[in-house]
Amino acid sequence: MRFLLMNNLELAYTLLPLQLWNTLYMVLLSTLFACILGIPLGIFLTITAKGSIKPHPLCYKILEAVVNIGRSFPFAILMIALIPLTRWVVGTSLGTTAAIVPLTLAAAPFLARLVENNLKEVDEHLLEAAIVMGSSTWQIITKVLLPEALPSLIATVTLTLINVIGYSAMAGLVGGGGLGQVAIQYGYNRFNTFIMVTTVILLILLVQAFQILGFFLSKQILKKRGKSGCHD
Question: Is 102 left (phi over 0), alpha (psi -120 to 50) or beta?
């Protein structure tokens, strides 16, 4: 029993630090790329919607269709469907870097829809005031929509990042690396409960850490905004 425990501890020490790093690498880069794609997409969805500052029904319908199709794919199927694209982008469909492609394309539509909802919650009176003052569309986006929705946007990015952690665990099914692959390859396939439980605990701690960080940042912005409002 003692030998088994020592063997499990040695295995965990050998595997988990590297795969934890691989998970962070996948999750953070995928979330960054998802933001680069998803936030502009969410902005375009917002401004081209009916009754918005630049309504364009055809453009909105096309963007909405892209987002809805992207969100409707189960991630396991999306990973397989994107193998040709992944190989074209990174040269292989296996490994941690390769997993970033499907992770990004799975997270971007999810993020875009949430960004659209965040921006639509901005007070209409602020938008009307900006329009009356002759602000351009770019000025309304950068000086009204994004600043006013910033706390909600941080919460949205945090939620997306947490979802990407879940997706990254699934990426282990197809050799994506990270903690998910450890749980499957060394925990589930080898009936090693210790490795399985340890991996799950690490994933839970990772989710909690990012959730606390996102909540803290959002709260700090709201606090500063409140102080600024009182000062004004």
Answer: alpha
pTM of the predicted model as reported, rounded to 2 decimal places: 0.86
Other Cβ atoms closer than 10 A to 29: 17
Q: What is the pLDDT of residues 44-88, one digit of tens each?
A: 999 998 888 888 889 999 999 989 988 888 887 888 888 888 888
The CA distance from 223 to 171, in Å, is 38
Q: Structural domains in the chain?
A: 2-225 (1.10.3720.10)
Q: What is the pLDDT of residues 120-132, one digit of tens each?
A: 888 888 888 888 8
Q: In this structure, which amino acid lies at residue 54?
A: K
How many contiguous H segments (helices) and E segments (strands) does the chain have?
10, 0
In whole angstroms, give the CA distance from residue 33 to residue 217. 20
3-state secondary structure 160-218: HHHHHHHHHHHHHHHCCCHHHHHHHHHHHCCCCHHHHHHHHHHHHHHHHHHHHHHHHHH
Alpha carbons 145 and 43: distance in angstroms, whole number: 9
Residue 175 gets the label, from left (phi > 0), alpha (psi -120 to 50) or beta, of: left
Question: Hey, what amino acid is at 25?
Answer: Y
Residue 30 belongs to what H/E stretch? helix 2-48
* Residue 145 DSSP class: I
- Contact of 161 with 33, CB cutoff 8 Å: no
Say how far residue 19 (Cα) sits from the centre of its chain. Answer: 19
